[in-house]
Amino acid sequence: MTENTSSSVGVIRVGDDAYQDLSVRGINKRFTAEPEAFHVVTGTEQVVNAVREAVRDGKRIAVRSGGHGYENMVGDPAVQVVIDLGEMREVSFDPERKAFAVEPGVRMADLYRTLYERWGVVLPAGDSATVGVGGHVAGGGFGSLCRSAGLAADHLLAVEVVVVDASGDVRTVVATRDPADPHHDLWWAHTGGGGGNFGIVTRYWFRSPDATGDDPREALPRPPASVLTGTVLFNRESLSRTALRTLVGNFGRWHENNSAPDSPYTALFSGLVLFGRPREGDPGMGAVAFVHVDATRPDADRLMSDYVSELTAGLGDFPAVLPTEVVPWLEAKKALAQAQDAEIGRQKVKSAFLRRGYSDDQIDTLYDYLDSTDHSNDSSLVSLQSYGGRVNAVAGDATASAQRDSVIQAFFMNTWQDEKLDETNVDWMRRLFRDLYAKTGGVPVPGEENDGCYINFPDTDMADPEWNTSGVSWEELYYKGNIARLREIKAKWDPRNVFRHTLSIRSEG
Ligand SMILES: Cc1cc2nc3c(=O)[nH]c(=O)nc-3n(C[C@H](O)[C@H](O)[C@H](O)COP(=O)(O)OP(=O)(O)OC[C@H]3O[C@@H](n4cnc5c(N)ncnc54)[C@H](O)[C@@H]3O)c2cc1C
């Protein structure tokens, strides 16, 4: 199909039928996008035209691909033009680059299915079905295969970006992993520097750094053909303060001991989801642990049972260990996505990288908040997920994803529906996080125990001195020592700061 490059095609303005649907497309219902126009683009030339027009007219731009950003990067009332790449959804193999070319509007479920069914390979990345590649890869991208195969960004070979220079000229640049490439720094910025900072990504190319030859089936890792899945349920009434200390302590210790890049347990990925007490009625589940092990390994059953027995040690017989199942790979990934994508509504999220498991004091704080009834959210959770493994085989400055010796990624989220309850629920989440990290100024300051936050789970409180009293800037929490280079790249590639949002990189600290 020939791309129609006319700038008026796909331009949706206030009053047009599709405007309202485009307004509410973002995942976090706290934020509605209400620009003068959405440019629903289908190719790079249309992106160039849309940016050129906006720059010429002095309009503030925001970029959207999958619409799964948790903070207000796109719905900010200051935004006048939203360039929406959600319809750019092609996945192909580019024989010249010997790499998979993936457009930013591709959703994760489609990416997994196409790569696997056509070529038998996978991009190790997030577990949601509906997240867009556009924002996800630029922020690093982690999921159930990352302990065995690294982050999505670790497999990024090249990126096509629409950029604006100091005089306002708009052009398309391809930046690659090749250190001799004059645009290499722009590639590096897209391996964890976060979306919406440097320009608009119109295509990613993926090929593993150690891939050889021309065969697409060798260009990216192969996922295990089947997955051994396990589930352990912890009912709320038995999950006392002491039991929570034991459970979260076990999870932390196990990850401290089994997350080296060469551990056999890189074949195992687990999540421990701790649920908040519902406001009323049914007490709900206290916690669920899910486990995925590469079922093609001869020792898969042993890895699973050793893990489950360490996780449940000291808890007596109340944890309900469900029978394990062997599930084909795509089906197993789908089941993870269903759990992740189920929460819909108004949300507040936070994140932390853990180098060590939580202390008893911290677990008590989690208990107090998760057991409390002084909130009005429909649901709240703290999800601790396996990290490390091959993610930690890469140096902290080799990509922009700086956290390379953590063992757990912690994700905090609450969800509610009524706008009038925004303040109480955001406040509940803020207090939880502040008290959890009371020792380090209310935030996970990089050090022996913590390693900052994850930019794909952005949280504007990290830039607010009321909630971050650590003296460590939000940029250092997300990017650690890589922030200096990211600032230089920002100054070079977006000197007019055209691409900016509430947590974007500034060229000056
Ligand atoms: C239900 C759910 C599950 C998730 N699960 C995981 C997970 O398992 N692992 C994980 O790592 N993350 C996960 N995430 C986080 C996800 O990776 C980020 O929210 C990601 O930024 C979403 O990208 P998007 O394109 O869908 O979102 P958008 O809202 O479209 O974009 C997010 C940010 O990226 C920018 N951006 C988008 N497209 C482009 C582009 N083409 N060029 C430049 N900048 C762009 C936007 O301006 C914005 O700042 C999850 C999020 C949700 C909502």
TrEMBL record:
<protein>
    <submittedName>
        <fullName>FAD-binding oxidoreductase</fullName>
    </submittedName>
</protein>
<dbReference type="InterPro" id="IPR016166">
    <property type="entry name" value="FAD-bd_PCMH"/>
</dbReference>
<dbReference type="InterPro" id="IPR050416">
    <property type="entry name" value="FAD-linked_Oxidoreductase"/>
</dbReference>
<dbReference type="InterPro" id="IPR006094">
    <property type="entry name" value="Oxid_FAD_bind_N"/>
</dbReference>
<feature type="domain" description="FAD-binding PCMH-type">
    <location>
        <begin position="31"/>
        <end position="211"/>
    </location>
</feature>
<dbReference type="InterPro" id="IPR036318">
    <property type="entry name" value="FAD-bd_PCMH-like_sf"/>
</dbReference>
<dbReference type="InterPro" id="IPR016169">
    <property type="entry name" value="FAD-bd_PCMH_sub2"/>
</dbReference>
<keyword id="KW-0285">Flavoprotein</keyword>
<dbReference type="Pfam" id="PF08031">
    <property type="entry name" value="BBE"/>
</dbReference>
<keyword id="KW-0274">FAD</keyword>
<dbReference type="Pfam" id="PF01565">
    <property type="entry name" value="FAD_binding_4"/>
</dbReference>
<keyword id="KW-0560">Oxidoreductase</keyword>
<comment type="similarity">
    <text>Belongs to the oxygen-dependent FAD-linked oxidoreductase family.</text>
</comment>
<dbReference type="InterPro" id="IPR012951">
    <property type="entry name" value="BBE"/>
</dbReference>
